Amino acid sequence: MSFEGPVRMKNPDQHFTIFEDYELDAKNPYHLYFGRLIGEGGRKAINLYNLKKRSYIATTSMDAELSLITANLTQAGPGKLAYDPFMGTGSFPLACAHFGAVVFGSDLDGRSIRGKGSRSVRNNFHQYHTAHRYLGGFIADLTNSPLRTSIFPSPPQPDHPTNAITDQNENRKHPPLQPPLDAILCDPPYGVREGLKVLGSTRAHLHEVVHLADGTPAHLQENYLPPKRPYSLGRMLEDILEFAAERLGEGGGRLGLWMPVAGAVSAESEGEEGQSPQRQPPRSGEEEAKPSDPATTTTTTTPATAATPTANPPSASDPPPHPFSPQQPPTEPQEEQHAEEIIPIPTHPALRLAHTSQQDFNKWSRRLLIYVRLPEDEVPLGELAEFRTRRAERERREREEMVRERERDWSESERREGGGESRGEGDVVQAGGEKGGEGQVQGEENVKGEGIKARKGKKKGGTADELNAFRKRYFQGFREV
C-alpha cells in the first residue's frame, strides 16, 4: 500500500484498524484483520439512553435498546415525522429524536406526559439535547384521535391531472394533501394489571357536562380524568392498523407495533417460504439495518411471506389469516385455543408485514411487528372496502349497544328515584313521626341497594378476561386449559 501522506496520530484523514481473532484459551490469534475504518456501530446509544440514567421513567418504560431497535426498523431519521399513540414516558419518541426525526405523542392518561415538577417527558428531551425535535403530547386514544388523515401537501405534480385541483380564481394547480406521518411506533397496553380501556362510558350520566361552582366545565380542568369504557385486545390491534393505514405516507410509511404472545411463538407464523410450517426456521433479516444502528447486532427478523392480502392467490407458506381479514368473517375465539391462535398476527389490506422480531420471557413472549404502507395503486380496493365495511358494521352495533346501555341506565335511575319517594311516603303514613322518617330513609336505602345489585349484575361490555385472551392466559400461568 502506498501512503503518500504523513502519519498523524491526532485528527487523521483516514483511520485504520486491526482485529485479532483468538480461539478459546489460544496464545496466538487465529486470524488478523487489517482494514480502513468505515463507520462505527450505534451501541453507544444504548448506554446513553439507559433507563437508570434517565430523569423520568415509569414501570412500563420501554428498554433503551428495544426503543432504538424499533425506531431504527421504522426508519426514523432527519426530515421525518414520528408519532407514538401510547406515549407514556416517551421512550419511543426519544429514540426517534436520537436518529433525527421530529416527534410527538399522545396517551390516554395525561399525567404520564405531564409528570410532576422537573420530571416530565419534555425534560427527558432536554436531558438528551433533543428538545428542538419534540412537538409535544396530548390526551387521546386511537378511537378518539384529533389527527387528520391528510395534512401536508406533496411536491407539485402539474402533469398529473388526477392528483391536482384547479383553482378557478388564480388558474393554478394545487398538489393533493398527503397523510402526515412517516412512522408510528407504539407499545400498546396488554391489559394485564387492569383491563384495556378507551375514552368514553356506557353510563348515561357520565356523558353529561358537569360545571363547577364558577361555571367552568369540569373536563377543562388540568387534573380532569375522563371516563373510560372496556376495550378488547383484538379490537385494539385492528384499530392500530386502520389508524396507520389512514395516516402513514403511501409507499414508505412504517408502523412499529409490539404485540404480546402467550407461550412460545407458533411455527406457522414464523415459517419461511418453501419450508414446512411445523419446523422452526432460523431467523434471518429481510432488509439490512443501517450501519450505525444497534439493530445490526441485537435484533432478529423474519420476512413476511404473505401477511397482507393481495391480488395474487395465496401460497402454501402463507400464515393463517387474521380473524378480521377479508378472507373470512369475524369469528368468536374459543377458550380452548391458545392465545397465539386467538390473536394471530393482525393484517390490513393497505399494510405489508416487513419484519417480525421476538423477545422471550419466562412463559410468554412478545413480537415486534413492522408494517410498511403500500402505495395506493398496490392496495386491493375490493378487499379494503370489504374490510372497512365489516369494521363500520361492527362499530354501528357497538354504538347501538351503548345507546341501549344508556337507556337502561336512565330507566334504572328514574325507577330508583321514583321508588325511593313512594316507598318513603308509604312508610311515613304507616309509622308517623320520627319512626316515619326512619322508615323513609330505610326505604330509600333498600331501593338504592337494589339498584346497586342490578348494576353489579349487569354486563357492560364484558369482563377484562373476556375482552383479552392474553390477560386470561397470563393469570392462569399459561398452563393448558
UniProtKB/TrEMBL annotation:
Keywords linked to the UniProt accession: Cytoplasm, Methyltransferase, RNA-binding, S-adenosyl-L-methionine, Transferase, tRNA processing, tRNA-binding
Biased composition range(s): Pro residues: 316-332
Ranges where the record places region Disordered: 152-178, 265-338, 391-466
Entries under SUPFAM superfamilies matching the protein: S-adenosyl-L-methionine-dependent methyltransferases (SSF53335)
Low complexity bias locations: 274-283, 292-315
Localization per record: Cytoplasm
Entry GO MF terms: tRNA (guanine(10)-N2)-methyltransferase activity; tRNA binding
Compositionally biased intervals (Basic and acidic residues): 391-426
Sequence similarity: Belongs to the class I-like SAM-binding methyltransferase superfamily. TRM11 methyltransferase family.
PANTHER family: RNA METHYLASE-RELATED, TRNA (GUANINE(10)-N2)-METHYLTRANSFERASE HOMOLOG
Protein name per the record: tRNA (guanine(10)-N(2))-methyltransferase
Taxonomic lineage: Eukaryota, Fungi, Dikarya, Ascomycota, Pezizomycotina
